[in-house]
C-alpha cells in the first residue's frame, strides 16, 4: 500500500467529509512508529498501548489547529514524547521515588516482559539505555532507533542541535562503557 503524504492527510482532515479517512491514513502511517518510540521510553507494553491511544486522541483533538510551523511527524513525536515524559513523571510522583528508581523499575519490567522478544544483546542494550538520564535516553532513542536528524529532534524537544549532538555523544559513551562492563 502506497504511503500517503502528510500534506494530503492534512488536506483531507480539513474537510468534514474526509476527516475520518484522513485520520485513518495518519494512524496507518504513524501508529507503529509512535508505539515503538513510546515503548522504548516507558518499556511496559500496556503503558505504551495506553499512551499511544492518549497520543492519538490528542492528535485528533488538535490536528485541525496544526499550523504547519513544523513537520507533521515532528509534531506527532512531540506529543508522544510529552505524553511519555508526563507518564514517567506521574509514576515517579505517585510512588514518591526518584527517576533512577523508575529506571530500575523499567529495567525489571524489561527483564520480565513477555512482550519483549529481543535476544541477550538487545536486552543488554536496552538495560544500558535505561541507565541514561531521561533526556539523553530520549535523544539516543530518537537518533539511534527512529533515525531522526538532529534538526528534527531539535523541533521535537526544543533543544539546540549543538546540545543534542553533545548529549547523543555522551549517551553513546555511557552505553559503550556499560556494555564493556557487562559479562
From TrEMBL:
Q: Which PANTHER family match?
A: RNA POLYMERASE ECF-TYPE SIGMA FACTO, RNA POLYMERASE SIGMA FACTOR
Q: Which organism is it from?
A: Pedobacter montanisoli
RNA polymerase sigma-70 region domain location is 26-92
UniProt keyword annotations, A-Z: DNA-binding, Sigma factor, Transcription, Transcription regulation
- What family does the entry list? Belongs to the sigma-70 factor family. ECF subfamily.
| Protein name, entry field | RNA polymerase sigma factor
Q: Name the source's superkingdom.
A: Bacteria
Q: Does the keyword Transcription regulation apply?
A: yes
Q: Pfam families, per this entry?
A: Sigma70_r2, Sigma70_r4_2
- Which residues does the UniProt record annotate as the domain RNA polymerase sigma factor 70 region 4 type? 123-174
Q: Which InterPro entries match?
A: RNA_pol_sigma-70-like, RNA_pol_sigma-70_dom, RNA_pol_sigma70_ECF_CS, RNA_pol_sigma70_r2, RNA_pol_sigma70_r4_t2, RNA_pol_sigma_r2, RNA_pol_sigma_r3/r4-like, WH-like_DNA-bd_sf
